[in-house]
Write a structure and sequence with these properties.
- The complex is a heterodimer of chains A (about 110) and B (about 110).
- Helices cover about 0% and strands about 55% of the residues of chain A.
- In chain B, about 0% of the residues lie in helices and about 55% in strands.
- Chain B has no helices and eleven strands.
- Chain B is globular.
- The model of chain B has no long low-confidence stretch (mean pLDDT about 90).
- The chains are: A mainly beta (about 110), B mainly beta (about 110).
Chain lengths: ~110, ~110
């Protein structure tokens, strides 16, 4: 069974641009969560979607947004990129709306120059 | 707020030696606790989780952890380290009663030496 797929794996963007990251969950999983990992701040929760609804949001500025489609695939968008947005963005999916059964993807490494 | 503290950002052991990675949690109610491992340029892989069943939890790759309420600890151990265990390890918590948001510790980088 396929795991959580994140695309692209690597991305380089310029300050001020916007970026969209994609996450395809494990088949049948309805919950998708996003985390940001940086050397300075560690792993931080961005948001969680369940059945196309955002159920929880972390403490990030409004430049960070996301959505989930009817097939449970999710995208996150970061507008007006800043150097500090350089990070590994991890997506995790679970069957239901809880974190007990999280499976993480390999992440998208975003570099902002 | 629920949180976890990992003592020691870097731990070094010899191959074949005991691995002990420390994690303490702060919680007013019994939490759900997790250990994840991350290899370079990879995502997080679940090693084991405690969800209020048995206090001694066995995970993959020979790792285990014991939930000690009196010490608010959930330390990760492995009797004999292998070179392939070199990675970063994260302890994480969600509040008792469930939820959908993991709060992670700052991570412990494990180095295994010959």
């Amino acid at each position: 069974k396929a795991g959580v797929t994140q695309t692209p794996r690597y991305l380089i963007k310029t300050r001020g641009q916007q970026v969209t990251l994609s996450c395809s969950p494990i088949s049948g999983h309805r919950s998708v969560s996003w985390y940001q990992q940086t050397p300075g701040q560690g792993l931080q929760f961005l948001f969680e979607y369940f059945s196309e609804t955002q159920r929880n949001k972390g403490n990030f500025p409004g430049r960070f947004s996301g959505r989930q489609f009817s097939n449970s695939r999710s995208e996150m968008n970061v507008s007006t990129l800043e150097l500090g947005d350089s990070a590994l963005y991890l997506c995790a999916s679970s069957l239901d709306a809880d974190a007990y059964g999280y499976t993480f993807g390999s992440g998208t490494r975003l570099t902002v120059v | 707020a629920q949180s976890v503290t990992q003592l020691g950002s870097h731990v070094s052991v010899s191959e074949g030696a005991l691995v002990l990675l420390r994690c303490n949690y702060s919680s007013s109610v019994p939490p759900y606790l997790f250990w994840y491992v991350q290899y370079p340029n990879q995502g997080l892989q679940l090693l084991l989780k405690y969800t209020s069943a048995a206090t001694l939890v066995k995970g993959i790759n020979g790792f285990e952890a014991e939930f000690k309420k009196s010490e608010t600890s959930f330390h990760l151990t492995k009797p004999s380290a292998h070179m392939s265990d070199a990675a970063e390890y994260f302890c994480a918590v969600i509040p008792g009663g469930g939820g959908n948001k993991l709060t992670f510790g700052t991570g412990t980088q494990l180095k295994v030496e010959l």
